[in-house]
Amino acid sequence: MKFLRVNMDDLSINTEAVSKEYYGLGGRGLTSIMINQDVPASCDALGAENKLIFAPGYLSGTTLVNSSRLSIGAKSPLTGGIKESNVGGTVAADIASLGITAVIIEGKIKDDKFYILRIDQNGQAELLDAAAYTGLNTYDLVKKLKADFGDKNSVTCIGTAGEMKLKTASIQTSDFDGRPCRAAGRGGLGAVMGSKGIKALVVSRGGKSADEPVDNNTFNKAAKAYAKAVKADEFSGEILPELGTAVLVDPINAAGGLPSYNATKGQFENADKINGDALASRIKKRGGKTTHKGCAQCIINCSNEYVDEKGRYVTSSLEYETIWAMGPMLGNDDLDVIATLDFLCDNIGIDTMSTGASLAIAMDAGYKEFGDGAAAIEMVRGIGAGTEFGKILGNGPAAVGRHFNHKRVPVVKGQSIAAYDPRAIQGMAVTYATSPMGGDHTAGWVVDQNLADFGGTLDPLSDKGQVDASRDAQLHMAAVDTVGICDFAQSGLAAEGGMENVFSMVSSKSGKAFGEKEWAALGSRILKAELDFNKKAGFTNKDDRLPEMFYKEPLPPHNTVVVVSDEQMDSTFDFEE
Amino acid sequence: MKFLRVNMDDLSINTEAVSKEYYGLGGRGLTSIMINQDVPASCDALGAENKLIFAPGYLSGTTLVNSSRLSIGAKSPLTGGIKESNVGGTVAADIASLGITAVIIEGKIKDDKFYILRIDQNGQAELLDAAAYTGLNTYDLVKKLKADFGDKNSVTCIGTAGEMKLKTASIQTSDFDGRPCRAAGRGGLGAVMGSKGIKALVVSRGGKSADEPVDNNTFNKAAKAYAKAVKADEFSGEILPELGTAVLVDPINAAGGLPSYNATKGQFENADKINGDALASRIKKRGGKTTHKGCAQCIINCSNEYVDEKGRYVTSSLEYETIWAMGPMLGNDDLDVIATLDFLCDNIGIDTMSTGASLAIAMDAGYKEFGDGAAAIEMVRGIGAGTEFGKILGNGPAAVGRHFNHKRVPVVKGQSIAAYDPRAIQGMAVTYATSPMGGDHTAGWVVDQNLADFGGTLDPLSDKGQVDASRDAQLHMAAVDTVGICDFAQSGLAAEGGMENVFSMVSSKSGKAFGEKEWAALGSRILKAELDFNKKAGFTNKDDRLPEMFYKEPLPPHNTVVVVSDEQMDSTFDFEE
What we know:
CATH architecture of the domain at 2-204 in chain A: 4-Layer Sandwich
Number of helices of chain A: 23
Largest sheet of chain A: 6 strands, mixed
Strand order of the largest sheet of chain A: 2-1-6-3-4-5
Strand content of chain A: 5-15%
Oligomer: homodimer
Largest interface: A-B, 15 and 15 residues
């Protein structure tokens, strides 16, 4: 248990013991509580006072499956509020295996130089001049870093978008095959990393000094039971390995909640060209991989490897949210175009969802035609090339809306919504509006409770029960993001005895009692810290609103608007006292 | 006394009697009180709910000299607050001479078409299809309008910047020679005009139905006395006719208050190349005009006509604020470049001050070198051409700052400051910070009270007395902008018995008693309305602050920062109860 503290003011690196208040925390719990405590809420997100924190989940680096989740926290340059963006790959397991609880980057470089933060197999860290790596996109960067440092390293890096400090820049991590295709995409944390002058973290995969659970036997027993439940579940054990998250295209489209043509329609007429079946059959036909291991210790393998007609690698992994953002949102039904855009975003180091929304707004404003895939590719290449218009796109949907004086901008707190239209799935209206993260789906994904296809019992077009559902989901997810269990492995939590398995792992790791009460308290503590930060940063309940389009423009085919009232939105965090 | 109300929703035009609450008002008093009353403060400035009001001063169209001042009011797309921008030329006298108290444009065109609002010599108005004029810059536009409607018209128009709804777009009016070189530059009102679909007002210069003063004799006597005082004053009677407002370059530079190189220096090393003497001698040598009548009924003739080496017209009138914005602010000492930039801005229809600040920020951020005049011209041409980068520049300094992640952005409420650095002239810090108009110099020009050269008795580097000076000036100016007396003819007010002359003109026009008490009440009533609007629009005292650069970056040569405290700023409008 140690913090690695890197100060870019003087390029110093210090190792320090984890202070007591952070015991039992990892992931989002650690980053959010520390950001709230140590970062002045009114600071410049790209200035010296902001901190960029990399924290593996509390269960990362243990024997538990699907636990290599890295939370990255900072004040967001995109939303102006607190941000935790989490990402898979291998790095979380690796950092945890070195006995490092969190890597904290603070201060600001004096010049515009970039550095590599190298952490070797003994957990020793050093800052190395990154002149030879500066200006590289992520795929070339990883190739060069592996050539110079060896294959047995995880890379966590920024592309040129992060170097340019674009407000939707992502932080990319290398996947199980060593490709920088896993993204901490939301909130522009790549820009924060760029402002700190860190081009990449190169972390040895050879760590052996992980924090051992206090009671190893009990831990391993619970971890095994958890893995068994994930395997036994139909969704995580069969559907996701076969079709990946693209399986969501059909039910969300059927529900009229797939935002298309910059969220002016809720159904995409060519959804069958981009759905799970279409994706899987194309990949298979071309000799790519539909079942693919993207993250360390993953037993679901929901990832895929998309290849071109000649079987050459295009991108990995093509996921539902990106398919939406680069597909229906742009009126584009060409999977090859979607895959190319996904690769370009990973390579430039920019969020696919925000970028899709940026392009959609530009198209909606008349800059290019909807459905023009070549134009979309050209626009994204412009982001990477750093053209002035590319910078506008890279600064996100709100910047594009301002640029074109275009009012249909589907963002909350400056961040784009995801692939669920809140007019057709009202529960997501609450999550988008109230999450301290801004427009975000993972913060409280209540689609399952809204749609009968998923066993949901709420009416997706009604406000009834939506606030409670979103609140519970948000509290729950804050805890899930803290222990570091992959969202898609939540089947293990939902299984009979699943929560008890997690409680057992946490308590046997920490040596302290942990149960339902502590789980609830953990979620509440984290959300309170995040809300507190945002309040200090100047947010009011007026920021917990959707843009006007969702209240005023009925969405076909249901022709409904968001009906959750302002009062209901404001009651979401009534647990706050 | 009538209002001309033009509704762009249905293209209807109605004439209505002026309601009692607006009796005795004109100019800023009328626009601000009406905007505050009739425009929802939270509305989209470019939407149907905003209103664009053209109101001649209360004394416009009378026998008083230097009174052709037109106030244009609306919610500003640049600041998000209330805006009155006033302008000279001939139009205010012409509108008033038609017996029109104000022209009110409301609603929003359904398509993207543009119209000409034509007002003939009988005060009859009609909307004409402007397809043949759309896309024209102001000089070509005026030429074509005069060809089509005759020379005897005043034109009030937008260029392409206004059509594109750029947030620093100006509204240009034709001068005494019929050139569109007079600008209501501040606050992006050209974008509001563009959003209303009005390309130009074409107002007959043949109006004869002006509101007659109730007591003509008394009025004319006071007006004559006023004119005499303006002529007798050394500044307005001799210096301004000879050197124009460029005469300010030397004393402001000497005071260390000429913001140079994006306000990183308070003195410009080559000020002698761009000062009043340099300008006048160059114009004379080339056969241009140093003494030039720009506005109807002007007896000062501070305008000039700048010509090139071959004696060909370049621009009119080259004024101090533009010389600053396109000169020292950009590190540029070439008067030809400054004149070309001034012409381009007038022609495109964009504010020279904001544009200078936009260019300066881009240069400061490393986009181009300071002093590169060709680059500056290319950038401004890009605004007119509607390139994507041009749009960023045209959306103003704050947009440029966001685009480049550049923090040194000298704006208040989104609007650039003017040619007086608040670190060297602390009184201007108060006016910039607290004026409801955003960063603005005319709202409360207390340079004279700060600099001994102008007879000032305040210490320009001290906070002492600055709040009182700015408050008094702001209240006074609100009344001056209401009666419609040219700022440079204020010598008439300052002369012995000058205020009484104005009181006499107002009371003999209205037939109601008007004196010092009413003058003070007028200023207070207007500022209260403006502050009320801004409060409803969401402004708080946090918006009454200068950007951090002025508090944190000492300005050479005095190496001082702004010392007026937040508490002092907040006490500026303590008259408000």
